[in-house]
Protein 1
Amino acid sequence: MAKTIEQKNTPCNTVLKVIGDYWTISIIQAIGKNKRRFCELERLLPDSNPVTLTSRLKKMEAMDLLTRTKSPNDKISVMYTLTAQGKALLPIVTRIEKFAEGYHAGK
């Protein structure tokens, strides 16, 4: 008889909840090690829409993957940067991207 796997709060399931939302991996890639303004993210992710992008950024901020900082010089300008937690995902995202490239090449 096959053993069942408890699906509740495994570390893997927790990470998938973090990066599994559509656009999250793309946002992590777009910000990378740089600071990005919202308008830059919109240009880097042209298929996204502002409402979804805003929602995803708020969720990622709540999950401590990025920080949102208002510019002291320009009250309207907001900068997004990855936290240490977010930066720790960069090599994982790179590995996922390499897997995806190989997967598509084999089809």
Protein 2
Amino acid sequence: MIEEEAYCVDILMQISAAGGALHKVGELVLKDHLKSCVREAMENGDADDRDQKLEELMAIFRKYGK
């Protein structure tokens, strides 16, 4: 769109739409991670695995929970 010299507002709208779509995909990946990897770590009895998954979640929430 930039190379075609599209109207700036149209470009910004496309950027916003792409960002929204990526955010939604991120939510779906996180949901799947919680339902599979994190659940498994909580149920398997391995304290190190549980701690690692919890630290990963904390890092994700620190980064994206702003």
